[in-house]
């Protein structure tokens, strides 16, 4: 992001070269949105630590450098990565929710046995 921009402005985070590079590296072996979105979600869940500091506003740089953020900041990071891949964010969220529902839902698991 250009230095003159407000460091807390996440609106153009999807254009940040680090976001683009990270999203592309996470999804380099994925072909479809259905594969890319869960890969990004799992990457953030595995590599970033959630902190419970309410009412904080960390910049993209702080979140990426410290690998920590609150729910909103980590969600913004995921949205920025999905958007950087030219995937509609609403579609990405729907894919993520469907993936979580069927991957971690005990009823779905038991019905497949």
Describe the structure.
It comes from Methanobacterium spitsbergense. Pfam families: Transglut_core (PF01841). Residues 21-88 form the Transglutaminase-like domain. This protein has one domain. It contains six helices and two strands, in the order ααβαβααα. The chain has helices at residues 17-26, 33-47, 60-66, 71-84, 89-104, 106-111, and strands at 49-50, 68-69. Strands 1-2 form a two-stranded parallel sheet.
Helix content: 55-70%
Query: pLDDT below 50 for ≥5 consecutive residues: which ranges?
Result: 1-6, 104-113
Give the CA-based shape.
Answer: globular
Structural category? mainly alpha
- Tell me the number of strands: 2
Rg over alpha carbons:
15 Å
Q: What string, H for helix and E for strand, traces the elements in order?
A: HHEHEHHH
Task: Report mean pLDDT, rounded to a whole number.
Answer: 77
Strand content: under 5%
The major sheet is characterized as: 2 strands, parallel
Number of self-contained structural domains: 1
Measured distance between first and last alpha carbons: 49 Å
The number of helical segments is 6
| Spatial strand arrangement across the major sheet | 1-2
């Amino acid at each position: 992001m250009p230095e003159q921009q407000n460091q807390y402005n996440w609106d153009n985070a999807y254009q940040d070269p680090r976001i683009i590079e990270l999203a592309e590296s996470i999804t380099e072996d994925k072909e479809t949105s259905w594969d890319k979105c869960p890969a990004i979600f799992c990457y953030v869940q595995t590599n970033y630590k959630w902190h419970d500091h309410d009412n904080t506003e960390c910049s993209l740089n702080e979140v990426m450098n410290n690998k920590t953020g609150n729910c909103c900041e980590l969600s913004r990071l995921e949205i920025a990565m999905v958007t950087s891949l030219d995937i509609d964010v609403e579609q990405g969220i729907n894919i993520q929710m469907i993936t979580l529902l069927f991957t971690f839902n005990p009823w779905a698991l038991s019905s497949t046995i």
